[in-house]
Specification:
- The protein starts with a helix and ends with a strand.
- It is elongated, with a radius of gyration of 24 Å.
- With 184 residues, the chain is mainly beta.
- It is built from 1 helix and 9 strands; from the N terminus they run H-E-E-E-E-E-E-E-E-E.
């Protein structure tokens, strides 16, 4: 009797599992109704340091072929602090983390794949992502925002950058960011 009961439960469970798994890898298509969009404006300073005891950007690869075309030079890993003001001792509100690729052809340019994560205030735990070219020797430039998480879910937008300070010897920089995010 007990074996029959166990066998019956196994058959019921197996049938239920097959029925739920047999629906495929997708659900029925339904019309998308987006949440209302919000616009958020952010203002902060990024501190990029290649020197000192605790650099925030470190080179992890460089070309090692002597006859390779010049201009395809370095790859950096970045973890730069984001502050409320231009002074590094001002309140840190987050960090940017990602990869920076240096390309110097006609114009010195960095290609950025960065995530700007916030650790304080209203946007604590939220982030937005940038995948864009950055002609870093221009005083003012713009980056494309391609996504976000948390309060910035599905973000698009742009970041306007202005070099606040640049040390041409060390490469250290402070960059002012004005970011406009359109998100759900």
């Amino acid at each position: 009797m007990a074996r029959s009961l166990i066998l019956a439960w196994i058959l019921i469970f197996s049938t239920a599992t097959v029925l739920t798994c047999g629906q495929g890898y997708y659900s029925d298509t339904v019309p998308y109704v987006p949440a209302p969009k919000k616009v958020t404006h952010l203002h902060f300073f990024l501190h990029d340091s290649l020197t000192g005891k605790n650099p925030s950007e470190v080179m992890v690869a460089s070309r090692n072929i002597t006859n390779a075309p010049s201009g395809f030079d370095f790859v950096f890993v970045t973890s730069d602090p984001l502050t409320v003001g231009p002074d590094i001792s001002s309140e840190i509100v987050g960090h940017t983390q990602g990869l920076t690729v240096s390309i110097v052809r006609d114009v010195a340019t960095l290609v950025l794949c960065w995530d700007f994560g916030f650790t304080k205030g209203e946007f604590n735990g939220s982030s937005f992502s940038v995948l864009s070219r950055n002609p870093n020797l221009q005083k003012e430039r713009e980056l494309a925002v391609v996504g976000g998480t948390g309060k910035f879910r599905m973000a698009t937008g742009f970041a306007q950058l202005k070099t606040y300070f640049f040390n041409s010897t060390s490469g250290d920089a402070i960059v002012e960011y004005h970011v406009t995010l359109i998100h759900h």
